[in-house]
Design goal:
This protein has 205 residues and is an alpha+beta fold. It contains six helices and eight strands.
Length: 205
């Protein structure tokens, strides 16, 4: 009964927020989760999600075209993950020396989760410190049959030398992360042929 009364009170206090799909002033963070849930919104977080289960390493025709990769991520987000209510969507991959995973502008203070809410890392620093809390496979970010995904990255989210010539070629090798790893090999597991077709992961917040 007490929980029912508290919930009813929260709804009355924050009715304008519910109508307008926004949050309300809630110093104790007790009301906003209820309002956000009823409004169909997720709690603020960074989310990793699967863009493609298999793709060769020749994503781009122009080595500087991050926008092409991000468009792939956006299409997957719009098709399957729009319930996460993200405002920024990118491919989770390092492309060039000035366009690395660590350059994407991922918010520093938000938890990193899978689409179902499993915590992968506590924040951006935790994500790029060489280990994560839950592997992308166990968190449900990638499908069960996916063993690796393109990253082109170092363990800190930089650019690795193996990157399919900045993702323009199938003739070389590209760095992948392991879907079953929580150590640094979640980002830098092995270099595979750029024609072998690992998955691609996206990130949004």
């Amino acid at each position: 009964m007490n929980k029912f009364i508290a919930a009813a009170s929260a709804l009355l206090i924050c009715l304008p927020a519910l109508i307008n799909f926004t949050s309300c002033h809630d110093p104790g963070n007790e009301i906003n989760p209820l309002i956000m849930g009823l409004a169909g919104q997720s709690e603020p977080a960074v989310y990793l999600f699967q863009v493609s289960s298999s793709h060769n390493g020749d994503f781009l025709t122009d080595a500087s075209s991050r926008a092409d990769l991000d468009q792939l991520a956006l299409a997957a987000y719009q098709a399957s993950y729009s319930n996460l209510h993200c405002r920024e969507v990118h491919a989770f991959i390092s492309v060039a020396a000035d366009d690395e995973i660590r350059d994407l502008g991922i918010p520093a203070d938000l938890p990193v989760k899978s689409p179902d809410g499993t915590v992968i890392a506590n924040d951006r620093a935790d994500l790029l410190d060489g280990s994560i809390n839950t592997s992308l496979g166990d968190a449900g970010v990638v499908e069960n049959f996916v063993s690796n995904y393109w990253t082109g990255a170092t363990s800190e989210g930089g650019l690795h030398g193996w990157n399919c010539t900045n993702w323009t070629s199938t003739a070389s090798n590209g760095t992948t992360g392991s879907s079953g790893s929580i150590t640094d090999t979640w980002l830098i597991h092995s270099a595979v042929s750029c024609g072998s077709g690992p998955a691609l992961v996206g990130v949004c917040w």
